[in-house]
Design brief:
220 residues; alpha/beta; Rossmann fold; P-loop_NTPase
């Protein structure tokens, strides 16, 4: 099992957000996390990445316990995160935004990783010299995925990749997720509506009020 979340409880201040969450992602699997806004999907992803503290429970990634591990160490294990709000630096070019996490980690194989991004999402190479601010919201989502690929060797967490994106770009993002699977990556992607990615999702969990409901088959 690549990612194994067991009995996870998370609080933000005095408020309980995640309650006894259990979720698994196998090697090479694309897993959906469906649920309305406020269900706890973003909290779960941020907790896996170490941006929120675990109150109780376990997060195992590739055989290592993450619950007490600092966030910077988790990235170096082969995970990448594309947040819902993209978090691009508008003054930097698309290529600079994509390179940024590899620079921060002092990666020795930046050019090889960048070539992989160009291969999986070739339009980003075309956008490369442009400032991130000049792109549409959907194009910025692709940049965020490309940036996540610069640190990910095993697992990508894609938070609401289809939210607020035009249908044509939603279709393109789904194609990219399919390419990730072909490249051997695992992915966990969240959304209120995962219909665009239905044909590439292997398994879907539904979350409501901070709990995982009975796992559902992949959306047809």
């Amino acid at each position: 099992m690549l990612l194994d979340v067991k009995n996870l409880d998370v609080r933000i201040g005095p408020t309980s957000i995640l309650r006894q969450v259990n979720l698994q992602v196998r090697q090479g699997q694309i897993v959906g996390l469906a649920g309305r806004n406020g269900a706890g999907k973003t909290t779960l992803m941020r907790t896996v990445m170490g941006l929120l503290a675990v109150d109780n429970g376990s997060i195992m990634f590739d055989g290592q316990e993450l619950a007490k591990m600092p966030a910077y160490r988790r990235t170096s294990l082969g995970m990448g995160f594309a947040p819902e709000d993209r978090r691009l630096i508008p003054e930097l070019s698309v290529e600079e935004n994509i390179r940024l996490p590899a620079w921060a980690l002092n990666s020795k194989d930046i050019e090889e990783r960048l070539d992989r991004v160009w291969r999986i999402i070739p339009e980003l190479k075309v956008f490369g010299p442009r400032r991130a601010l000049q792109l549409s919201g959907g194009q910025q989502k692709l940049v965020a995925i490309g940036r996540a690929l610069m640190t990910a060797d095993k697992l990508l967490l894609l938070d609401e990749p289809f939210e607020g994106v035009a249908p044509a770009l939603s279709k393109r993002i789904a194609e990219v997720v399919g390419e990730l699977s072909k490249e051997g990556f695992s992915a966990l992607l969240s959304g209120a509506d995962l219909q665009h990615a239905g044909n590439v999702i292997d398994y879907t969990y539904r979350m409501d009020r901070g709990r995982i409901e009975v796992p559902q088959p992949a959306i047809p």
